[in-house]
Design goal:
- The protein is mainly α and about 200 residues long.
- The chain has helices at about 10-30, 35-40, 45-50, 55-60, 120-125, 180-190, 195-204, and strands at about 80-85, 115, 165-170, 170-175.
- The radius of gyration is 17 Å and the shape is globular.
Length: about 200
């Protein structure tokens, strides 16, 4: 996992269309919160906004062409996904836990919540998983302050992963057994067999 310096300038599509869509979704949820929490109603998100070429281009450049999580040069084998650090549609506290709705829907077009990742990290491993430390209060709406959440996943664009993770040959390990590092490694599959093999070849 690499430290990402996300550019401060927000892409125009997020400042314009993104802000408009966010306001619409907030209004929908406020009008019928129970239906959205039960799953009777589901929000639709416009991939053409958060996944717009201008957004993707800037993030790929900021990440030096690498997946925000596993550091693979994902463009060699795929176009990559625009991943939401805090899941937009719904979240799971545990990988096999129940999906809680709605997710962090007001952050679907938020610049600070968007990363570029490979499809394997996004679709197979992280998906909707977003655990918090025990006792941490989860923010459930735009009025809350997400900075007060004690997330167990490391955000590479908000903190330096080197504080938590270290290398041991071709494996990534938690520094001093740090719990957030251990959870991040497990949830993102950062020691999966294919990654270990690729690192071993590089070391050789």
């Amino acid at each position: 996992m690499i430290k990402i310096d996300r550019p401060k300038k927000v892409p125009a599509v997020l400042r314009n269309e993104g802000v408009t869509e966010t306001a619409r979704n907030v209004q929908k949820v406020r009008a019928d919160l129970g239906a959205y929490r039960s799953g009777a109603k589901k929000l639709e998100f416009d991939r053409e906004i958060y996944g717009h070429a201008s957004v993707k281009r800037v993030m790929i450049r900021a990440q030096r062409g690498k997946c925000a999580f596993c550091e693979s040069e994902f463009r060699v084998v795929s176009f990559g996904d625009m991943e939401h650090f805090r899941p937009k549609g719904g979240f799971r506290r545990r990988s096999r836990g129940a999906l809680q709705r709605p997710g962090y829907y007001w952050l679907a077009y938020a610049w600070e919540n968007i990363l570029a990742s490979c499809e394997i990290c996004n679709r197979r491993f992280k998906r909707n998983h977003f655990p918090l430390e025990k006792g941490s209060c989860r923010v459930r709406g735009p009025a809350g302050d997400c900075s007060k959440e004690r997330a167990l996943l490391i955000d590479p664009a908000a903190e330096d992963p080197d504080r938590f993770l270290a290398w041991h040959e071709h494996r990534v390990v938690a520094r001093k057994g740090d719990r957030r590092a251990r959870v991040t490694l497990r949830v993102l599959g950062l020691n999966r067999k294919t990654l270990r093999a690729a690192r071993a070849r590089l070391l050789e």
